[in-house]
# Entry
Amino acid sequence: MNMTVEKTKGLKGEITVPGDKSISHRALMFASIAEGDTRIKGLLKGEDNMATLKAFRQMGIVIEELGEDVVVHGKGLHGLKEPEDFIDAGNSGTTIRLITGLLSGQSFFSTVTGDQYLRKRPMKRVIEPLTQMGARIFGRDGGNKAPLAIVGTKLKGISYNSPIASAQVKSAVLLAGLYANGVTTLTEPILSRDHTERMLAYFGAKVERKGSTVSIAGGQRLVARDIEVPGDISSAAFFIVNALITEDSDLLIKNVGINPTRTGIIDILEQMGGNLKIENKCEVSGEPVGDIRVKSSKLKGIVIKGDLIPRAIDELPIVGAAAAYAEGVTTIADAKELRVKETDRIATLASELRAMGIEVKELEDGCVIVGGKPKGGVRLKSHGDHRIAMTMTVAASGTDGITTIEDVECIDTSFPGFKELRKKVSVQ
Ligand code: S3P
# Structure
């Protein structure tokens, strides 16, 4: 399916964006292994999260959809049953990596796979520490790629120094740690998103944290508790940048998760000169939440690197669109992880921005984007990557002419209703 985009004259009004994808995955997983019923409000019902939901149904967990809400009837740490068939994680790296950690310590055999994109992505990063814990996991490419076969076994706690700042690696190890003998400790080079640690604590588990080191003792019970999922800042980011680069915009995005491990995008856009305000800050289900007000702004190029990168990893494509409209040069560095996301996002972003006449130099770990006047009336590709599809929609919205974006079905993995929501707030 293709989408056409025309020049937007302003983004105005008040919106909410769908629930946070990372928190939604965790809510389904932890509620399934908690004792008792968890009602989840605001769960993201995108394809990625539905893959997680289906996986737990395959393992015998009853999950009811009551209107917008979902009720998970948790069966405790040892209540999962052997799935009869492959678990299909679809496009979702979070589903496959976290579930692999969880499955390692079960008393049954399981297999996990995913779509053509996921089957190309590296799994060694989770299999390596899990194997050190005693896990028995087999996969293609010397154990690096899905499909994966997991022979559940008894695990032991380890102390692991992760070479990358990855919440998926950390969460897989912590989930396995719940089933391991003794204490499991993980240190990462820079703190990645900490939704797992927060949700474990919210469900009553004791999790110790110091800087970017986290420890958990095995065998702890999780106690079911209702969860409200805030709006996803990664989804809000597309509307934030769209409003910033469009004249006459004044947009209020309500109820967005503003966990400090996720707000790198706010810091980046403020440094670029963006007029952003966070209002009504509060805490909901153990996560910080607020409303984000954004007005049109003149942006300038900056350098983005170091500690900011893990705090904005999923937003770097949309930062690329902001950079295309900024005055001067924007450099993104230390972001090699972008090469192993849903697509190689350094390559896919560079190729599509270039198709709009923007000068982009690829670096091994990032890119250099020369701001200017992006050209519309062109055909752009999503490459099957939801964030590239939405980034190019925003980039095209400031140009003259009608731009076509090809293969936009992938947007449903994280942001069902994206097109309709844009239409609702855009003055054409
Ligand atoms: C996620 C962690 C990040 C992020 C992904 C979601 C999570 O991946 O890019 O979209 O929910 O834990 P990495 O752990 O690979 O950095």
The pocket of shikimate-3-phosphate is lined by residues 22, 25, 94, 166-168, 171, 192-193, 313-314, 337 (CB under 6 Å). The radius of gyration is 21 Å. The first strand starts at residue 3 and ends at 5. The chain has a mean pLDDT of 98.
